[in-house]
Structure prediction request, 229 residues.
Amino acid sequence: EAQVTQNPRYLITVTGKKLTVTCSQNMNHEYMSWYRQDPGLGLRQIYYSMNVEVTDKGDVPEGYKVSRKEKRNFPLILESPSPNQTSLYFCASSMRPGQGGVSGYGYTFGSGTRLTVV
Amino acid sequence: QKEVEQDPGPLSVPEGAIVSLNCTYSNSAFQYFMWYRQYSRKGPELLMYTYSSGNKEDGRFTAQVDKSSKYISLFIRDSQPSDSATYLCAMRSTGFQKLVFGTGTRLLVSP
Prediction:
């Protein structure tokens, strides 16, 4: 089954304790992205990657890191989490635009990781 | 001003009603328009996608884009309780990787 898999689904941690949220896709997609979703603010992009070893900042990158060493994996790293990073996080992937016609412009999302930082 | 505006709702309708969900946007470079459905505790799933202006129909769902007014709509005919979810509009420019989302409209369809 074509999917984006995130782990863990739920995580409660303390301020300052480094954590990693893993993301893996099995669709051979070139593009991958991390979003956070907050009430009233919607989905905001944190970081994105257009291919292996190619990453760039989205709209809200402060406090996050990413890496893309393999095509299928795109982990999100919080080196020193703070309470304002409490949120619902989604990993997503897509084909390179144009590869799949109009549908190639849509992202496939994972099921989400609910992170609470206390 | 946000690039994409969407009424958060909730929108409550009885089963069988026709539902209209809408978004407005400000960036005239947007060419690709999508609607995602998000159930509680799940990730968004792609429901409909269209390119530029026009209509697209898929079963009970119809997506419309009016680029001259910078306005997009999703119509749901014969709404069902299983349609109860949050509906997110999303847009993307040619050559840009980023999807820009509306904040979502919560829809409740009562039996």
Observations:
- The mean pLDDT of chain A is 92.
